């Protein structure tokens, strides 16, 4: 089943193919572009559901590409960039991006962020009728969604801490916050509820 169409804009062939492979395993249809001109052309012609966009492209600044995309569409745009400074992230979000992932990245976390943004777009567009599900998703932060995705995969708090570069105590804090927001008492209940509402 095709879950949606994603445009991957990345001039590094290795990264481009890595991202493409992981997203295809999730049943997304993938379009790839190695520069801004091709990216905008594919974006206009294919009515994509989300764009993954590098900032440093060979022909034009990814920030400008983002501005052009945002003029044409409200679909989610996620920057995938080696620029890690806070002002770079803020700039990226201010020009219209919905999310910002820094390199190097964990491909599975990238997939989780893509899934989260696709779902948010779907709910916002009115494609899902459950008010409970929409509210549930909106109250979880991106980091809490990431933590829940990893809980769903059966990772321990220690494993999650290592994966997200956090302390184990911080992860336990995320667990407690997730349980409180979802109105559940443990990991199993949290995962079951999220699956039931189509969030996992």
From TrEMBL:
<dbReference type="Pfam" id="PF00196">
    <property type="entry name" value="GerE"/>
</dbReference>
<dbReference type="GO" id="GO:0006355">
    <property type="term" value="P:regulation of DNA-templated transcription"/>
</dbReference>
<dbReference type="InterPro" id="IPR016032">
    <property type="entry name" value="Sig_transdc_resp-reg_C-effctor"/>
</dbReference>
<dbReference type="GO" id="GO:0000156">
    <property type="term" value="F:phosphorelay response regulator activity"/>
</dbReference>
<dbReference type="GO" id="GO:0005829">
    <property type="term" value="C:cytosol"/>
</dbReference>
<dbReference type="InterPro" id="IPR001789">
    <property type="entry name" value="Sig_transdc_resp-reg_receiver"/>
</dbReference>
<dbReference type="InterPro" id="IPR039420">
    <property type="entry name" value="WalR-like"/>
</dbReference>
<dbReference type="GO" id="GO:0000976">
    <property type="term" value="F:transcription cis-regulatory region binding"/>
</dbReference>
<dbReference type="InterPro" id="IPR011006">
    <property type="entry name" value="CheY-like_superfamily"/>
</dbReference>
<dbReference type="GO" id="GO:0032993">
    <property type="term" value="C:protein-DNA complex"/>
</dbReference>
<dbReference type="InterPro" id="IPR036388">
    <property type="entry name" value="WH-like_DNA-bd_sf"/>
</dbReference>
<keyword id="KW-0597">Phosphoprotein</keyword>
<dbReference type="InterPro" id="IPR000792">
    <property type="entry name" value="Tscrpt_reg_LuxR_C"/>
</dbReference>
<protein>
    <submittedName>
        <fullName>Response regulator transcription factor</fullName>
    </submittedName>
</protein>
<keyword id="KW-0238">DNA-binding</keyword>
<keyword id="KW-0804">Transcription</keyword>
<feature type="domain" description="HTH luxR-type">
    <location>
        <begin position="133"/>
        <end position="198"/>
    </location>
</feature>
<dbReference type="Pfam" id="PF00072">
    <property type="entry name" value="Response_reg"/>
</dbReference>
<keyword id="KW-0805">Transcription regulation</keyword>
<feature type="domain" description="Response regulatory">
    <location>
        <begin position="5"/>
        <end position="118"/>
    </location>
</feature>
<feature type="modified residue" description="4-aspartylphosphate">
    <location>
        <position position="54"/>
    </location>
</feature>
<keyword id="KW-0902">Two-component regulatory system</keyword>
